[in-house]
Amino acid sequence: MEKILIIGGAGYIGSHVARAFLDKGFSVTIFDNLSTGCTENIFPESLFIQGDILDYASLVEAMKKGFQGIVHLAAFKAAGESMIKPEKYSINNLCGTINILNAACETGIKNIVFSSSAAIFGNPVYVPIDEKHPTNPINYYGFTKLEIERILGWYDSLKGLKYAALRYFNAAGYDVAGRVRGLEKNPANLLPIVMEVAAGLKPGMSIYGDDYDTPDGTCIRDYIHVNDLADAHVSAFEYIASALVSVALNLGSENGISVKTMIDTARKITGRPINTAVAPRRAGDPAKLIASATHALSLLKWKARVSDAETLLSSTWNVYKGLCK
Question: In Å, how far are 118, 142, 194, 244, 281 from 146, measured between CA atoms?
Answer without folding.
Answer: 10, 6, 30, 22, 26
